[in-house]
Structure formats: C-alpha cells, structure tokens
Specification:
The protein folds into two domains: 14-194, Up-down Bundle (Growth Hormone, Chain: A); 222-421, Growth Hormone, Chain: A (Up-down Bundle). Helices cover 76% and strands 1% of the residues. It contains 19 helices and two strands. A two-stranded antiparallel ribbon has the order 1-2. A hairpin with a 2-residue loop joins strand 1 (265-266) and strand 2 (269-270). Helix 3 packs across helix 4.
C-alpha cells in the first residue's frame, strides 16, 4: 500500500493526525453526524404536522429547503472552506446542523421551522458535505473513488444508527425533547471530531494512481473550470442521473401501492418497509464499492456499467411489478446502480481539474444534485398525474440512465483523455 510518506517531512506533518486513513475515519464521523436531518426527516412529519397544525404539503417545504440550500450554496461554501480552512468551516457546519434541531424543537410556527430545520440545517449540512469530500480527494489521489465513496456512504448510511433510537425517543419523550437531545449530541460529536481534521502537506510525496489513466489535470480555479465545456458535460450527466434516480426512488411508496405489493409479506415483513431498509444499505455500499472499482478500471468504464445496471434493474422492476419478492430485491439493485454518482463524479472532476480548488469546484458540480431533486420528484408526480400510469415515469428514468451511460463511454472518456494528454501531469 502506497502512503504519503516522506522521510524529510517536517515533524508537524507526522503522527496520527496526518495519517490519511485516520483522516478518512474523521471525515466519515463528520458525515454521519449530519446524515439524520435528511434521512430521518420522515419520522418527524406526523408529530410536527400535529404540533404546528399544518398540512403535509406545507411541512414538506422544510425538507425541500434543506436539500436546495445544501446544494445550491455549495460553491459559496466551498470557496469559504478554501479561504478559511476545512477544520474551522466543518466545525461550524456540524454545529449548525445540530443546532438546527435544537432550534426546531422550540419552533411554534411553520415559518420558524423553515428558518431552523430548513435554512440553518441546509447551510450546515452543505458546508460539511462539500468540505469533507474536498478533503478526501486531496488525501487520496490514488484512491479518490474509494475515499470519497466511503465518506459519502457515511452520509447515506449514518442514519441507520439513529433511526430506531430517534423513533423510540419520539414515542417515549415526545417531539421537543427528541429534537433537542439528538441535536445536541450531533453537534457535540461533529464539532469534537472535526477538531482532528488536517489537510495534506503539499510538500509530501503523493501516492501514484492505481489506474494508468487516473492522472490529475492542471489545477483550474472555478471561474476557469466553468468556461470549460468538459465540466458542463459532467454537470449534465450528474443532473441526468440524479433526476432519473429520484424520479423513481422518491415515488416508491406510491407506485408500490398502485402495483399492489406494498403490504405483501416478503420474508415475514411487509414489502415496502423491507425494500426501504435494503435500499438504504445498498445506497451506502455502492459508493465505496464503485469508487474502489473506478480506481482500478477507470472512471468512465465504471460509470457505463453502473448507469446501465440501474437502467436494466428499472426495466426488470417495471416488467415484474406485481411480484413482491422481485420488487424488494430489484429495489436494492436500483439503489446500488444510483448512489455511486456521489463517489464517481467528484473523483472524475478532481482527476480532470486538479486538487488545488477541488472543494470549490465540486461545490459547482454538486448543484446538479439540487436540480435533480427539484426535477425528479415533482416531474415524476406530474407525469403520473397527467397520464395515470407509471410507465412514462420509468421510461423517462431508464432513458436518462442509458444516455448517461453512453455519454460516459463514448463522449466523456475520449474527451477527457484528449484534455489530460494536453494538460495533465501525474502528481
């Protein structure tokens, strides 16, 4: 295993805090500390609706604000991190994320909930997500896909540890106490962990990429990158994959009921909650898995396989829609073919446009996830409402997957190869 080792490195660059695997662990903890606001939100909808006296439609605006602010402010947050340092900004982000729950516990109106859970929470989680990803692509030039996938998995799967404790606390202690206590715990864990974050010393010897084509291009600042059409190809591809995945995954409860499988027992459990549990697991596992694969066989090759896998799984899902067992199993495959976008795209972006501005650059690419969240759910619901069928929804999602897979192999791969041949140096 190649490491960042250099016998002439200064003393300040040695020890546990400058071990990149320890930094990966710290980044993983920080991501887990901010995962619950998004992934446990559904547990709060009923008690919040009752407390505030508002319909679910108004309440869900809070969740939309959380996602939009997390993604659309990412370029600004990335710039702040690069200017003031990852440790300082990620500390603030984890504090804001936990504080959003503590403040939300005192909210007496829907407007206050928007400001606390939505605004404060969205800004806090966005800072941490962008900051941790930016750290990992610097620490692991040889294993970017795996490292980014690991911390992204921490965000995707971190709520598994908190879902049942939070559900139990809601039943036993009530809404306000649950939000306050867990918010305090998340803030403390995140702030304490983030104090151990360090950035790699540029003077240290860098590990060689595992795959011959995984070179690092010339460092470009965001304003330079945004003028490069290659960036916009990646942006469009990530938007397409985000939209296609969310078009289907956000509507699982609705179409499973329409297909008549939601309450059918599979392995002794109702199909829908069982599928959702498996999906959360596979959505986390796919990120380091395909990231690890991409480190060895190339980013675009991995994209083609993963995106095509989702298209095939969605097709089979639709064709066998009345089979509850296959509904559960294929839902896991669909999520396994979708969640890897959060490891493959940031790694590919940094391979192409360098590490110096990696955090701010990824902030711009991350906006595509926000666009996908806006388009995916509402577009799918509108298509179903207008046509009375789920077939157009699935057909659109499958088409987007296939187009993205072909673009990865036939356009992105040769284009990046030509670009790196002119500008890249292995670092």
């Amino acid at each position: 295993m190649t490491t960042f080792a250099n016998t002439s490195a200064p003393a300040s660059a040695t020890g546990l805090l400058h071990n990149r695997w320890f930094q990966l662990l710290i980044g993983l903890i920080c991501m887990m500390a901010i995962s619950s606001p998004q992934y446990v939100w559904t547990l709060f909808t009923k008690p919040l609706s009752t407390k505030l006296g508002v319909p679910l439609s108004q309440l869900q605006i809070t969740f939309s604000m959380l996602i939009v602010l997390q993604t659309f402010f990412a370029p600004f947050q990335g710039r702040l991190i690069e200017r003031f340092g990852a440790r300082r900004l990620i500390s603030i982000g984890t504090l804001l994320s936990g504080l959003s729950w503590m403040l939300a516990s005192q909210a007496s109106s829907i407007g206050m909930l928007y400001l606390t859970y939505g605004l404060v929470g969205g800004l806090g989680t966005g800072i941490v997500y962008i900051g941790v990803v930016g750290q990992m692509v610097r620490w692991f030039p040889d294993r970017r896909g795996f490292a980014v996938g690991m911390v992204a998995a921490g965000y995707g799967m971190g709520a598994i540890l908190t879902t049942f404790p939070i559900a139990s606390a809601l039943a036993g202690k009530g809404l306000e106490s649950t939000l306050w206590q867990f918010g305090l715990v998340f803030a403390l864990v995140g702030v304490i962990a983030s104090q151990a974050l360090r950035s790699p010393d540029p003077a240290l010897k860098r590990a060689e990429p595992l795959h011959a084509q995984q070179t690092t291009g010339t460092d470009l600042a965001p304003r330079q990158m945004l003028r490069n059409p290659l960036f916009w190809l990646m942006f469009c591809m990530m938007t397409m994959m985000s939209t296609s995945g969310l078009m289907v995954t956000s509507q699982m409860a609705s179409f499973s009921r329409d297909f008549g499988v939601a309450s059918v027992l599979v392995f002794g459990l109702a199909a829908l909650p069982l599928a959702l549990t498996i999906d959360r697991l596979t959505n986390g596992l796919t990120r380091p898995f395909f990231g690890w694969i991409s480190d060895r066989v190339g980013r675009e090759n991995t994209m083609f396989f993963a995106f095509a896998l989702e298209a095939v799984a969605m097709t089979l899902w639709l064709l066998t829609r009345e089979n509850a067992v296959l509904f559960v199993l294929l839902s896991g495959v669909v999520f396994f073919g979708w969640g890897e976008i959060f490891s493959l795209f940031p790694s590919t972006l940094t391979d192409t446009f360098g590490t110096q501005h990696a955090t701010a650059n990824y902030g711009w690419l991350y906006i595509s996830q926000g666009i996908g969240s806006i388009l995916g759910g509402p577009m799918a619901a509108l298509m179903h409402e207008k046509t009375g069928s789920w077939h157009p929804v699935f057909a659109t999602a499958i088409t987007l997957d296939i187009i993205a897979a072909l673009l990865a192999l036939l356009v992105l791969k040769p284009w990046r190869r030509r670009y790196l041949a002119d500008t890249a140096t292995i670092k």
